Amino acid sequence: xxxxxxxxxxxxxxxxxxxxxxxxxxxxxxxxxxxxxxxxxxxxxxxxxxxxxxxxxxxxxxxxxxxxxxxxxxxxxxxxxxxxxxxxxxxxxxxxxxxxxxxxxxxxxxxxxxxxxxxxxxxxxxxxxxxxxxxxxxxxxxxxxxxxxxxxxxxxxxxxxxxxxxxxxxxxxxxxxxxxxxxxxxxxxxxxxxxxxxxxxxxxxxxxxxxxxxxxxxxxxxxxxxxxxxxxxxxxxxxxxxxxxxxxxxxxxxxxxxxxxxxxxxxxxxxxxxxxxxxxxxxxxxxxxxxxxxxxxxxxxxxxxxxxx
Amino acid sequence: xxxxxxxxxxxxxxxxxxxxxxxxxxxxxxxxxxxxxxxxxxxxxxxxxxxxxxxxxxxxxxxxxxxxxxxxxxxxxxxxxxxxxxxxxxxxxxxxxxxxxxxxxxxxxxxxxxxxxxxxxxxxxxxxxxxxxxxxxxxxxxxxxxxxxxxxxxxxxxxxxxxxxxxxxxxxxxxxxxxxxxxxxxxxxxxxxxxxxxxxxxxxxxxxxxxxxxxxxxxxxxxxxxxxxxxxxxxxxxxxxxxxxxxxxx
Lengths: 309, 250
Prior knowledge:
Helix content of chain A is 25%, strand content 28%. By secondary structure, chain A is an alpha/beta fold. In chain B, strand 3 and strand 4 (26-27) form a beta hairpin.
């Protein structure tokens, strides 16, 4: 039995979530292969080969895989799928796009965002924005799943797995990649930051979101996050939305500022080690998931906190 | 251009779902139900494409029991032209849903299929991608902007770290993100009129698709709650607690 991990990368760097996927894959006690679809980046192959627990890195290189489309990634995985009983990836916009396509082509159901892997093809995953946990068993012959990264520790480095190249398929001709806009930020990546500071609608405007939260984030080396309400109101960009339909984070310290605490938001942060909430409304639900709550006007409390650190 | 929409009936997003006393499943008897919010974005986008003169007909399909008529009426009240109920009381999992939808696509031959990017009940987020796969159509998931040209749709997608724009040949499958648009409110007279519109009903068993689930639900639980925290009286006290109790920000 062999396990295939679909690796995510940005063309230069392997995503740290691949190390979490490798840890998840160790459950089966079998060979683990990592698939890299890209445009010939040896550094990424080397990074994958260095993860402990990886037996083989499979590299597929082509110009059209520089910005891999779900259609091409899915066709590539299906072309080698006979060798694998488990196909998995860390849950992200990349894997959520490609793996359901793989599952359908293999005529199996997919299990999204797995929190815990048990024996006999049994998995725990959340439904209803994390309010309910389900334990489900798959009877499919191939298991296709994404794992909830923060539930699995990152596998350590220091390995030197074999790297092999496979033949590349022709590009899918009905879809073309045109362009991308990457949020420019000097801050750490939201999904791997040790400290996350999130702002809600109470910030009032994009300017104040920046003015109030940035100095604190800079001082703590923190990533910035936002609620859906704040993103919809235009205070922050969509890629920093924390919650059910956005990014899920689990930092050492999560500071929620002017965040009411809807379940759709808390789904994305409740695995944080320490949660601090600052909100003027003493009844805000965010205080139910906060280790330390401060009922205060955020426009006074946050600058005071920034000054005191 | 013809657009097909798939709409799902789910527990209202404001309801905190409970577990049945015997722990076998969630208890949604008598709970307020409604249309999946992402599917409303899909409907709204189709309506706008029709208002721009791009789309000529919009068909909505829902899978489930006769209770699903309410979400189809809601779709008709928003402005959808035709509604189809694919009637079944089976516990449908995404691949099975996809196979049923594919049968409708084969019959209706739409140029564009728009679905919500995920349903807020099972949070699987798979059906659009699976449907594109089985049809060998291109897919534009998590769409925040659509631009339809002659034989192509340009899709801006919300991805981790920013946005990405791709071009898809038609026919194509799109899944709607919340920021695609602000769905219109349904006006009462429209809702009254929608009650009189016909809903075509097809018995799912007539389509000859095996709906037996391959995922078996063994157990449902409530997640462990975070331990109850404390309120602090000031910024000074907050920092003191974080430093002495948690050993951070020292």
